[in-house]
Predict the structure.
Amino acid sequence: MSSLYMPFSPFFVSQTEESTMDSAIKELDTEGLIQFLKRKDLGLKETNYEILRKEEISGSIFPNLTEAKFRSMGLPFGPAIILAEFTEKIKSQKLKAYSSYKTGKDLKDVLKECGIIGTSIGDIPQFTPETYKISENDESLKLCMTLIKTKLSILETLLADDNERERCEYVESILDSAIHFVKRITGKKVTRHPQTEVTGEDNTGRVDYSIKYHSELICITEGKFWNITERFVQNLLQLQNASQVNKRIIGNAFGEKDYIYGIVTTAEAWYFLKYANEGVFCTSKNPLKVDFNESALENSNEELNLRNNLKRIIEVIAGLLIDKLGDTEPPVKMDE
């Protein structure tokens, strides 16, 4: 199981699954608050938002405002009531945990929020991930092979009913090898963190892994063998909330690269997601696959097949991270 994100930053607010919405918006500045309110479809006019802007109302102030205070700043009676009722609502409305999203209906609802009409992960628009080609003798690939072969010699063949902890052993080896490669190529301090808490405006919870660069969340990875759909819907929500917090904390630090990547994996199958302003995209119809069979320890053909599949996965993960970091040779598209 996994998620991609770096040193500690205010991006990750320490909150529990019992956090309320008012605590989640307290760090929003005026513009951030206005965008938050617009996403809630309260039926307010731009002139109403201009009053909030003029009065410099931020997220820390907003929950304490009453109808009388809204009226005193010049808001008409109707909008004042709407905002006053909303402030009361967010004080008691709990942030929903990612883990509570499990059903096909949940996926349908989340896809609808993303502007997608559909009921399965196959309905999500597809994209071709960036990839960064690595040489056959690259030291990070050698590192990955050493780690994986060591795992195979101890854990033996990965079976269909093996638990998530065993699968994590392989996922971590691949993620760490990809990060090792990216750090060598870019010279930038990219780090991986397990069980990172990500709290946005509507949801909260922990992701399996995060890969970060400074305060920016680069990618989130989730995985589960027996319910990929469940992990897809959770990963989409994690990406949505992480994107909100990225913008709140550091603004548009990556310029035109204002998007975030996700990974959903079973260890054997790897799906990639992209959450951007223009929409959500994934590789649900074309996952990368790798088998972890102890026969690769003795059979040279099996070992070569394992190496080639690991290399392909590392190239895509590295390509996504380098694409976000953006100051090395341009990544090339993955072969169809």
